[in-house]
Amino acid sequence: MLRRLPLWFLLSMLAMAFVVLVFASGALLRGARIDLTANRIYTLSPGTEHILATNKEPIRLQLFISTTAMRDLPGLRSYAQRVRELIEEMASKSHGTIKLEVVDPQPYTDAEDKAAAAGLQAVPVGVNGTQLYFGLVGTNTRGVRSVDPFFDPAKEVFLEYDIARLLVSLGDGHKPVLAVLSALPSGPSFDPSSGQVKPGWAIDSELSKAYELRRLQPNPTSIGSDVDLLILIHPKDLPDDTLYAIDQFVLRGGRLLAFVDPDAETDPLGQNPPRVGADGVLTPSVSSTLGKVFKAWGIEFDTRNVVRDPRNALQIRSEASGQIQPNPVALGLSRDNLNQGDVVTAQLDSLNFSTAGALALAAGSPLAMEPLASSSPDADTVSTDRVRLQADTRQLAEGYKPGGRPLVLAARFTGKPASAFPDRHDPSHIAVAKAPVNVIVVADTDVLTDRMWVRAQDFFGRRLLDPFARNGDFVANAVDNLAGTPDLIGLRAREGFARPFTRIQKMQQRADQSLRGQQDELMVRLKSMEERLAALQAAKSGQGGLSSDASQKVEIEQFQRQRQRIRTQLRDVQHQLNAKVERLAMRLKLIDILGVPAILTVIVLLVAWWRRRARPNAS
Predict the structure, then answer these.
(1) Which H/E stretch holds residue 306?
(2) pTM of this prediction?
(3) How far apart are CA 535 and CA 555, in angstroms?
(4) Which has more pLDDT, 48 or 617?
């Protein structure tokens, strides 16, 4: 029977069935999604899904996207769509607790005022410097607000982490507890000479704003179960009972951020000139380590040596000569020395260390080490005693030999270590960590001090901070990462969304070169005009005011016309570039949407035609 039906009728029926199937699937499969991308960029991490599933707090998200300002920025426009789709995916998995509103803050509107008031970063774009906003504002029912000021495409690999962190800050009313055990004057202290309270280090005061800071008394024998993160600053000569408390805290799942040092320059005992004892040992000691704990966990840290790296030496005023000169044990690390694949150091571009030590893994260690900050491959080590006794920093370079490999100054350690105290028989003793531990160790305490990263000024009773390095961000990132929920800590950098077309990039590069050439031409003409005007002004007194003014007016009018023409050309080139990119993108979309189905349809029709011809021959 079907053989007698015309081919056009069969195709019409198939088309109608296809349309019905599309509408039916839209209704029946609403919310169903399949991620077929190569890197599964639209699939949420298990940690994010657990955060969304357990969140009970209603959260309102406002995504500010300056759509009009992005019109001539196709790359940023595509990334904005990616951000929006990711947040929409999170909202769909939140069981209704997360509501998303997308806002386009047009210039001179209430929406733009709200974006600015919320603390979003405005980026000027275009010839006229139009303000572009691209950030996220979240609020909850308790009135707490959290903001991502700007979604930088360069940080795309941490996009899911950043949004999940914002949701955690709004969804959980718990303020993380940081227990701080410090042998250095890091916190506020009373100054007997002035009779006033000294504010302490800038890092300490900044952490106290966001967390509950619990300062431990010296040599504690237990760490509270409600502590989210233990911070050790210069753990010097700790007794076994305190080391055992630290050991058990970490093995039962607590997180640890430890700052140890071969030469803590702010140690109160180190303020007096060092002296060599009868046994040849330099006193007093200003080094710190976790001794037995490090040994049991397989972490190597030698307090007898300091990292020396002339390539990254900071310019420091010498105590001996009073001159500013490179100090090979005071290191200024750049982006190349920092792990851009870890959320703690990603996007940081400068960290300053002073007389730092080196970290390594011992053979057979149960832990894995992920370096966060490292020296250059040319670094070596120099004796701690020599550094303390040498006043002239130039002489510290004597005997230097490139080591041939980077030395690790800060690292993350993960794994399941055994207790450093196997002979303890307490009822609650933990012999081996049941879950992987998460520990960050920094082989320097001076990295925390104000002198290494910030200038603090008093402004009418307010303390203003002017950072010149990113040490504060480094510590804040480490605390934020370790003190967060296990789901948040488990999130790592993901593959990027961008799959650039090289042909489009080449078109953009050619247009950019053309734009730069015309901009340079405009600047040359501007400079020439300014020189001409200066010459006219100089000759004005000798030639008469009217003639000179007339000449200046003609010159100015000519320059203004030329400038207007070049600006018009700049806009034309930019519009031509955007038009070419849009046309190429449209062709690619048409190929994806229509081309492939058309090819498949032709193949199906050819097969059907061949089979219809084959049947009469067979009969």
Answers:
(1) strand 305-308
(2) 0.67
(3) 12
(4) 48
